[in-house]
Amino acid sequence: QLQASGGGLVQAGGSLRLSCAASGRSVGNYLMGWFRQAPGKEREFVASVSRSGYATSYAESVKGRFTISRLNVANIAYLQMNSLKPEDTAVYYCAAASTLGEVVHSTARPYDYWGQGTLVTVSS
Asked: What integer pLDDT is reported at residue 99 of this predicted model?
């Protein structure tokens, strides 16, 4: 089970750090990803990190502003979000994929497990 947290209300230009904690499974056995869904829009990819943390992938819209990381010993993955914009407002979901190897995934299909989502609201 995945539990996302850390969302909230922040002004444009501000920062938030989202956390994704796993229970009942070891995060180190999965590549991790973050997705988001804004009101009235499709769910979209945000970032992905490989099992070891060495490989990462980002959506163009967040490159240079967001950083995905993981701390396997603590069974947690993070999404550090800086320079937030109103268009970043969405429910953010963490996900885990059991794909073997040092890979990342930027589509939703390979992900086996999903958290419940945490709301991020960026005011202008």
From this structure: 84
